[in-house]
Amino acid sequence: MIPPVVRVSRLAVGPSGAMAGERAIPEETPVAIVHNGSTYAVMMATPGDLEDFGYGFSLTEGVIGQLSDVETVETLEFDHEDGVVGVEIRLWINAERAGQMVARRRQIAGPTGCGLCGVESLELAVKPARAVGEGRRFTAADVSRAIAALPPAQTLNHQTRAVHAAAFWEPGAGLVAVREDVGRHNALDKLVGHLLREGHAAGGGIVLLTSRVSIEMVQKTAMLGASVLVAVSAPTALAVRTAEAAGITLAAIARDDGFEVFTHPHRIALDGAEKERAAHVG
């Protein structure tokens, strides 16, 4: 098994001179998502929680719609002559869903092979996110508690200070799951896959991100079915428009002293002092 963290030699240089030593850094590995024997995509990812990654990526890409669409899954490692170790996540999709998958592959075969190659590629890149259900409401204190719980749970980041995290938080339960990866999209896909495999509905909790919020993060959150997304960093303008259209409450720039709500604020209940401040700003 490929370790997710590797210790390497390094030379630390500072005002007082140079000092030899070691540093823990995250591993980055090519990971192929293979559906029924055909490679769908190859991603660079941290080699951990890879079955979660396979399920989550397949769901957020629309290849599967539910857990039962996958009949079996296996993860295989391959050594290449140049020393690079690669991984294949092989998912076998049932016959009914596989027929839909073949039609979809025919539709996206051009765009996936040649980057931005025309109007169809651009439309696929900015496709609307799936509309989410109403979900539940949270207090501002809930959001603050959720964000505060995330840093202590980032075990890989404690070692490397170089990976992203995606987590799911619920009132009463706290952090249900945390997944980390060198890629922010991968971390979210791993979280989605974990919740899917556990049969854990997302409408009653908050998706947490340590990264900025781009359109893909909103699209993936929508595919999960979560109605509230909170991030430490800022969103893009397109992400805000996409969250608005999908019905997702998007809060970002979440810090110890507060956060900013960009869309559908009705799901976050404010106390009296917060309401007064909001009215003053308005």
Automatic annotation (TrEMBL):
The keyword Cytoplasm applies. One of its GO terms (cellular component) is cytoplasm. The active site is at C114. GO terms for biological process: Mo-molybdopterin cofactor biosynthetic process. It is found in: Cytoplasm. Keywords: Cytoplasm, Molybdenum cofactor biosynthesis. GO terms for molecular function: sulfur carrier activity; sulfurtransferase activity. Belongs to the FdhD family. This is Sulfur carrier protein FdhD. The lineage of its organism: Bacteria, Pseudomonadati, Pseudomonadota, Alphaproteobacteria, Hyphomicrobiales. The gene is fdhD.
